[in-house]
């Protein structure tokens, strides 16, 4: 992307966009490949997030982690994500304005009609590139769940799924639980 002459001195476009997305008057806004997007969710979307949070809550507490939708920065890129769910060690979350994907234990994205391809393709690639160890994709349009593991610069090396809703999905250690996907 060419920077206009007036802005070529002293302004970092990545920093400016990330500053701007944090000040959008929306509860959930994110930056995806340089585009500011509203990350709002409908009630069906919230239902899926609630089901997963309920199942994860006990093990998250035992691990000394927090679970939420905090900001994830992807330094060196025009991306600033607000995942549907991220599980992070509590000590990293304290006083952190944002974290990076490799500081998470698990990231969950739940698709909507407006963002399905972003979650399926762009975020999967970026989360792997930035070292998120586990990425759970809940695809409400296809009614499937897929777990990605083994992050690397070229993507995830391990894929478990897609599994149709209703199929238990095993989250590996440190979680060591089977997710019930029947109510997603």
Give, in order, the helices and strands.
Answer: HEEHEEEEHEHEEEEE
Helix-strand category? alpha+beta
Shape: globular
Q: What's the average pLDDT?
A: 89
Low-confidence stretches: 1-5
Number of domains: 1
**Strand line-up in the sheet with most strands:** 3-6-7-8-9-10
What's the helix count? 4
Main sheet characteristics:
6 strands, mixed
Strand content: 25-35%
CATH class type:
Alpha Beta
CA-CA gap between termini: 40 Å
CATH superfamily placement = tt1808, chain A
What name does the CATH topology carry?
tt1808, chain A
Record keyword descriptors for this entry.
alpha+beta; 12 strands; 29% strand; 184 residues; 26% helix; globular; tt1808, chain A; six-stranded mixed sheet; two-stranded antiparallel sheet; disordered N terminus
Walkthrough of the structure:
The protein contains 4 helices and 12 strands. It has helices at 13-21, 43-62, 90-93, 116-129; strands at 29-32, 35-38, 65-68, 72-74, 79-81, 85-89, 106-110, 134-139, 144-149, 158-164, 169-171, 177-179. It has a 6-stranded mixed sheet, with helices on both faces. Strands 1-2 form a two-stranded antiparallel sheet. The protein is globular, with a radius of gyration of 17 Å. Mean pLDDT is 89; it is low at 1-5.
């Amino acid at each position: 992307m060419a920077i206009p002459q007036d802005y070529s001195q002293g302004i970092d476009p990545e920093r400016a966009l990330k500053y701007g997305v944090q000040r959008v008057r929306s509860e959930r806004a994110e930056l995806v490949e340089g585009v500011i997007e509203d990350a709002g969710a409908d009630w069906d979307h919230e239902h899926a997030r609630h089901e997963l949070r309920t199942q994860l809550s006990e093990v998250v507490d035992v691990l000394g982690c927090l679970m939420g939708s905090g900001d994830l920065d992807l330094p060196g890129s025009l991306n600033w994500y607000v995942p549907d769910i991220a599980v992070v060690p509590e000590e990293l979350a304290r006083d952190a304005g944002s974290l990076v994907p490799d500081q998470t234990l698990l990231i969950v994205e739940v698709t909507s009609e407006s963002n399905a391809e972003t979650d399926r393709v762009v975020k999967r690639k970026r989360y792997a590139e930035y070292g998120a160890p586990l990425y759970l994709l809940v695809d409400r349009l296809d009614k499937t769940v897929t777990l990605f593991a083994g992050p690397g610069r070229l993507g995830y090396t391990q894929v478990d799924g897609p599994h149709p809703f209703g199929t238990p999905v095993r989250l590996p250690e440190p979680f060591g639980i089977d997710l019930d996907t029947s109510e997603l």
